[in-house]
Every structure is written in structure tokens, then in C-alpha cells.
Amino acid sequence: MLRAIALAGLILGLVAVAVFGPGLLEDANRSPESANAKESASLARCDLLNDGPCSWSDVSGEWQISLSELGEGTQGMEYQLTVVTPERPERFLAVLRGESMYMGEYPVPLGNRDGNEYSARFTAPFCTVDATMTWRIDLQQGQQPIEGIPAKLVFQAEPH
């Protein structure tokens, strides 16, 4: 009788591990990047080339970001990104991340132009398989993402 109870308990334990184990491991291994990706997926989109400039307010003040095409350069279409901030961040970066497909991350240092206005000139990489590429721009101060941006900042780059 004791063997039957132990065997039933062992089988029940194995079934519980098989059913609940993967979910528990996924929660334990979830990285902050995957949490940010899920949060980013639920945000409204602001297309910087078609809807821009995009602006928002937070506790520190007013933010505004705009993107314009400068024309064809040696590496492809060149863009001018301009960000107006309420305060002066150090090591201010815009990080390009593929939205329509993963093509890596491309940090773009933003230089201070005037007061709290920062800008950068860059060429967005493009995929040779798909002619159009949607990029997301994430703002960072050093390695830390800037929190509280209420929209996903995107633009569509096309090779010319």
C-alpha cells in the first residue's frame, strides 16, 4: 500500500513539473530587455517622418523629437535627428533597433547644438532582402534608457 501511494505521489509530482515547470523557468529567466520589448509593443506609434515632430511631457518638462531626410549620401539616405530636452543629459544616445526585423542595434551619439537641443546625422542600415525597413529609435542616457516616453518612435527607411 505504501509503495502505491509513493508511486502515485511521484507520478503526480512529475506531471506537475511537466505542466508548471516551463512557465516558472520562463519567469525566472525573463530579462529586462524582454520586459521592455513587451512594454514597447503596447505603446502608440509615432512615425517621425510622417507624423513628426513627436512631443510629450514628463515630470522634468517638455520633450520634442523630429527626423528629416537630408538626401542621398555615399552610404544611402542620410537623416537628421533632433531632440529638444527639458534638461541636459550626459552621454545622450539614440539607439536604432529594427522594428520590422532584427538587424542589430546601432547607437547614434547626439551632440549638443544649442541649449537643450541635441542632434545627430546618420544613415540607417538597410536589408538587402526587403527593400523597406522600419526602425525604432530608443533614447538613452549612457546605458540607461530614458523612461516615460509615451510612444514608440519609428521611421521607415528605404534604400534609394
Question: Which structural traits does this protein have?
Answer:
160 residues; alpha+beta; 44% strand; 5-stranded antiparallel beta sheet; 24% helix; 6-stranded mixed beta sheet
The strand count comes to 11
Q: State the order of secondary-structure elements, H for helix, E for strand.
A: HHEEEEEEEEEEE
* Structural classification: alpha+beta
Helix content: 10-25%
Which percent band covers the strand fraction? 35-45%
Rg on CA atoms, Å: 23 Å
The parts where pLDDT drops under 50 for at least 5 residues are: 30-40
- The average pLDDT value, as a whole number, equals 80
Tell me about this structure.
This protein is α+β, with helices and mostly antiparallel strands and about 160 residues long. The chain is about 25% helix and about 45% strand. It has two helices and eleven strands. Strand 5 (about 90-100) and strand 6 form a beta hairpin. The longest helix has 28 residues, at about 1-30. The protein is elongated, with a radius of gyration of 23 Å. The model is unreliable at about 30-40 (pLDDT under 50).
